[in-house]
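pasting Heterokaryon incompatibility domain-containing protein for the record, 637 residues
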Amino acid sequence: MAEQPPDHSMCAKCRKIDFRKAFFVKRSSWEDIFSEIQVHSILCNIAHILNTHNKCRCCCLILHGTRRFHPSLEAQKSTKLAWDPYCNMQAKVEVQEGEVEFRSVVYIYPGYNFDKVLAINLLSRQDENEASKALRTRRVKQHQAELTHNNNWVSTCNSRHKDCHHLWPRSSFEELRFRVIDVQDRCIVPVSKNCEYVALSYMWGTTPMLLTLKSNIEMSSLPQGLDKGPSPLPRTISDAMELVGDIGQRYLWVDALCIIQNDKKDQEHQIRNMDLVYGFASFTIIAADGDGADAGLVGVKDVSRNIVQDIEEVEPDLHLAVSLSGFGTLQRARSKWNTRAWTFQAALLSRRMVIFFGGEMTWECREAVWTEDLHISSGTIGSFIAPHYSNHMTPLLERRLAASKANPSAYASSFAAMNHDNLTMHENAVREYTARQMTYLSDMLNAFAGLAKIFETPLATGFSQGLPKNRLDTALLWTPEQALTRRPGFASWSWAGWVGKSRYFSMNYNIIKPMVCFDNEPQNWEEQNYEPPARPWRVVKPRSPTQRPILPQPTPNHRLCFSAYTASSGYFQFENLEPPLPVPLFVALLDQDVFEIGRMGLDRGAYPASGVYSLIVLSECSEPVQQEGLIGRDVPT
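structre below
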């Protein structure tokens, strides 16, 4: 065992870190936070930590944290470490009625890699009041998670977080017919009015397990019926039932047992209402470890984990700790649960999640992320870490809408619009979802159905093949991020019809940048009195009469037919730019006078090198629209 450094000793480099200012200076306003913002300060390199960890308590703390969470860094001795006191507007605590303070931690950045940051927090003292302890480190049990901590999380979230309340009227829940597990009687029961229940999100894998079928639903509905099946309950479901019982709850929703798996009508009903199933749950248990239903929830049972906290007294009566990692970027990258299509909507539709991964138990709701080692008091409002799943892939809720109304100038820029527009939230969800994997390709839209449903009201539209109907023109402009393969049974014009990751540049008219880019100055082929509508498509004045195409009848399934006026087919010409060609491939767009009027980009590598492609020029003008003196039937689209 390495020699321990002397009490309260710090090297000259670590003494540059003003821990007392980071942890004890009160910050009660936005100005207090940003007056202290600084460029990350270089602390030292890994070699220095290795050389002085047995002499410096702070170096010892950093080395232990690095070995625990980022062990590969130890061999990178020249890697520089930077630090800063990290504070944001979300890490709020109400210390007394009407008085809010913002907490901070010290971040250590190895090689400026923000994914491998170490957070150093202040260890709370037993003699402190609850408000002072809030968002400070607490000691955790080494071999078992404190399951009753979930009750404190739920209670604090209920009282503090507006966005985490129900999204839908209670009548919707009353109309929903579904079942839950009674964890006391160990059987399946119909959900009752005002039922409080917990949901479970996990992976089935290849584990043989009990499924609810038409043939056994009657037996499974009897007391102890779930123990009489042909195979025992898998460990993950069993652990989830134990957790629900230990925190004083009674009901648990699990898809394998609460949906009749060979009843098509029951399956379709549940799939259409997954937004309600997850949305009304008190919270959703996330089994993010392993690759199947027998992975279990590590930490639920005693002696099922081994959590060791790194804590050092760096100055007299100043105990610091390396924060637990939670379910951050690196942890999500290692979790197979985070790669599956069906688990995606569980994460986004749930108001609150309790995530089990790597032996840790982490809370994530719509307004906060709390690791198990954080002290959460009744005055705790936010967290140091922003929620990942609901922060940029779900419709805007009360808190963010109120913030945009209170400070509209902060949301005026195109960048802000990208982050605070429901359409962009939907685009972000599509990009993340299409990268996910599924066992059955036919599940593509089923596993997205609940998420699509919650976007219907904020976008004021339904969906066709996963695309919003009221923006079908721009919704067609999705683009692949990798080589795609065809998914049978779905429209080729939708991202749902292809296997592989896809994305939008954006349908948001505040930031849209079409792949076909025209010069800013009007040309002689453009209407001189034309002003762009909400979406920046150009109106072209034809040099030849327009005509309406004849549409085939009847149209095949999944085929889009556009009724539109068209300009002369020879109006535009294309010319390859001189090599070397950039990536993506750009071609010049010429008018009939061989004058370059813009350029068009193609994703090289994502599409086949050769083939027949069509350029669709879109416009908002359609019969019988009149705009700036132009009659719709005279304007091509």
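The longest strand covers residues 80-96.
The longest helix spans residues 57-69.
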